[in-house]
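User: I'm curious whether this sequence folds into something compact or stays loose and floppy. Could you predict its structure so I can see for myself?
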Amino acid sequence: MNVSPLDLRQQRFSSAFRGFNRIEVTAFLSAVADDYEQALRETDRMRQEMMRMEAIIHEHREHERTLKTTLITAQKLADDIKAHAEHEAQRIFREAEGRTELLLEKAQARLGEVQREIDGLKLKRKDVETSIEATMQALRHTLDFVREQDARDNRVLHALTA
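Assistant: Here's the prediction. I'll summarize afterward.
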């Protein structure tokens, strides 16, 4: 049986011999009705507060799901960026190795050219030294010949003047 505060306030009892005091019963029913009404209001307020809290909890759970999704997406994006950076670093490293090898080959080829030029210059130097030695020998022979000629000419001249 559902009894409302209004039912308690409007309830009337019949009179009986040696019954309860009407004023006390009415006052008691009024007090009970007030307490019951207050309890119903409090229950209604609690229900509304509970519904508000459930809505807030639902909203927080939605935010939590959104945050989890965002974090998972951010982690995946970070992993993708890291993987791409590692791949790019490996590509750059391979290119640098290739360029290094090419530069090394060019340097070795140039070293070979320089070594051949040095060897050629050494041969030319040897030829020039030989040529200078030959020229110096020829000049010595010429000088010796001129000295001998001068000595003969001086002897002849000395013999003629003597």
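Summary: The helical segments are 5-10, 22-161. The mean pLDDT is 91.
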